[in-house]
Amino acid sequence: MLYSELCGLYQSLENTSKRLEKTQILSDFLKKLNPQEDKVLYLIQGRVFPDYDERELGISTQLAIKALVKSSGLTQDLIIKSWKKLGDLGLVAEVARKSSKQHPLFTSKLTPEKVLENLRKLPELEGKGTVEKKLALISELLTSSLPIEAKYLIRTLIGDLRIGCGEGVIRDSIAKTFSLATEKIQEAYDKSLDFAEIFDLAKNLKLDTINLSPGKPVKVMLYPKASSIEEAFETVGKPAAFEFKYDGFRVMINKEKSGNIKIFTRRLENVTNQFPDVVRFASNNVQGESFIIDCEAVGYSPKTKLYTPFQDISQRIKRKYSIQEIEKKLPIELEVFDVIYYEGRNLINTPFQERRKLLEKIIKPEKYKIKLAEQIITDNQAKAQDFFEKALKENQEGVMAKSLSGIYKPGARVGYGVKIKPQDKDFDLIITGAEFGNGKRAGWLTSFDVSCRDKENLLEIGKVSTGLKEKEEQGLSFKEMTKLLKPLTKEEQGKHIIVKPEIVVSVIYQNIQSSPSYSSGYALRFPRITRLRPDRSVKDIASLDEIKKEVNNSNQ
Q: Considering the entire predicted model, what is its pTM?
């Protein structure tokens, strides 16, 4: 296969916004794939590695512009001027390739294999001369590319493929290609996180051979909201297990038979190096040669021993230096609430009550290190309410209610468990745009476009300009948010920028009203950002269905 054929697929997918059409187009393409071409699935996702692999290309817009200058012979000013006019660096690359002044003596037709080969080298480069080496790898591809290939190559490099082909479309297309149930593909993907592997196994009718594997990240099960204890019982049944909902961040701790321990966030990021304390807890206080346990890491004050809010310890997730210092300054306690793999056994279809009993056998509790999530089992609404109040008094977010017979569904929000929090109105949303401020806030981004999700799409639901501080020592600041968002710029429109959807924030609001001004059809009134959620991704944010449910509840 030539890379131009893949780019033809990209073009067809980009030309329709209809999900069913995209599914059919991709399915027709997949039917023609040879077995050795399965890794083209990564490129269709705009990636070069499987979803479980955290390595990123790390190519900024500025570096992509340099590569275009190097490969085309055009000036940087001309490239930037074209980018500001077109608003899409991929289109700039296409135009630049058509007018390129560079004509290499020897060219060969690009293949997806060659694209993968060069791009996979990028994350490995480090040290002196890294930028030049990266530019050489990218320029080699660009100088051999056709204009349409240059367009999608640059978009892949900067993580902005723009073909509207997310996880759902790929899943449905594989199911359609091999006449399999969508649920079967989804279940396999949630264990594997590798569409190339799924494609290969589906083709050979071996999907049932996929199993969990300690050391390889797996999606966590997600929990929808319930508005009350009564609604929680209606969803999960009676009796139910109620557990504290801790104000920390989710971690999946994996121990391989070799004894190697790895820690993954709900975003599938490997944070083992950032948490040597968690590695010690798992090694010393969890019995077993191999396991995958689901936990919440909760911060506490080393002086008062009181639990602290998530925001106080969130910096530990990204910290790569002075680990021992921050470990002492911001200690954590692990609250273990589930186990999905133990000593070679896949437990995701085992009832929750049995999984909890196993945890009680294998966890050796030690205060301020590791313990089981506090739990009661009851069918009494008053007892459950008292437990909820107790959680709040101990500075936790609320409680979880879980079905005793519920299985573990990686990546899914299903009725096996719900979360109950105080009636603060809040959502986790993603920032999709921002605007620079005026006066003393000039140079800072001070107004932020926030969006919810609707299947493969992100829909705006408001602009937020409150909740951030002018001084960093006072909390989350405009300066800090500007540092995070500027490198994610996709397009500039005067003072307004459109950014890659990577930064998740918690937003509280007064109420929700219908609004034709935003693509969601709704607007948050008096929204305020309360905190960053570096542990969460676009897949974790509020859905349009959740927004509608909240509107309906408010109108009753």
A: 0.81
